[in-house]
Every structure is written in structure tokens, then in C-alpha cells.
Design a protein that fits this description.
mainly beta; two-stranded antiparallel ribbon; single chain; elongated; 129 residues
Length: 129
């Protein structure tokens, strides 16, 4: 027996039935539906059985901690925000930068005019001549 990977199904060797693969659950219409963000496996849209790498359980759901965001590329996991970013959105664009950094309109953190980034990644004011 073979299952169609394009339908997000795999063969359960104990029951010899095609079941939804991890990251999916069987919806009401029998199709495999993607689990909520940060869930590695789930039973429905509101109950996560396990969380993706880096996520923490909050009640019946999973969430990525501050300083990370959920991504499915290349696999489902919580990915760290860009350097110098404290808080980012689900696309990885920064919403809040470390102290002394400026947030650009396109969601990046830069060390602003009259400042430089030290070897330890801190943004500090240039010394006066």
C-alpha cells in the first residue's frame, strides 16, 4: 500500500492506513489540514500534541518565545529574529530593536548616524574628535 505524499499522508505501519503526517491533522472533509503555527503535531486546530523546535507549550497551544518567529522554511521551527532585534513579526521583520539601534521602515535594525557597531554587536556613539 502506498500513500500520496502530495496529500500530506504517510503509511501508519501498525494499522496499514494512510494517516496525516506530522504538522497536519485530519479535517472534517477527510483532508489533511496544517497544524497551527509552532505545533509539530496536533489533533485539531486548537490542540497541539507537541511543539516545534524552540517553541514552548502554553495551555493546549505552542508559541515561539520573544526574540523568535515561526517559520516553515526549511522545516517548521522557531527561528531567531535578526541580529540587534528584540521582537519580530511572523515574517521576521523587526518590530523592536536593541537599545541605541534604529528601526527602519522595512523592519531592520541599524546603528544610526554618529554611532558604530562594536565587535560585541553593541551600537555605541562615536567619540568626539
Amino acid at each position: 500500500m502506498a500513500c500520496k505524499p502530495s496529500l500530506n499522508r504517510i503509511l501508519d505501519t501498525s494499522s496499514y492506513k494512510c494517516v496525516c503526517q506530522d504538522g497536519f491533522y485530519e479535517g472534517q472533509n477527510g483532508q489533511c489540514v496544517t497544524c497551527p503555527n509552532a505545533c509539530a503535531s496536533c489533533t485539531n486546530s486548537t490542540y497541539c500534541r507537541t511543539c516545534v523546535a524552540g517553541a514552548t507549550r502554553v495551555g493546549n497551544t505552542c508559541s515561539c518565545p520573544t526574540g523568535t518567529f515561526f517559520t516553515e522554511q526549511p522545516t517548521r521551527y522557531c527561528k531567531g529574529c535578526q541580529d540587534s532585534c528584540v521582537l519580530c513579526n511572523t515574517n521576521g521583520a523587526c518590530l523592536q530593536c536593541l537599545p541605541n539601534y534604529q528601526l527602519t521602515l522595512d523592519g531592520k535594525c541599524i546603528c544610526g548616524p554618529g554611532k558604530f557597531t562594536t565587535s560585541t554587536g553593541e551600537c555605541t556613539t562615536c567619540a568626539s574628535p
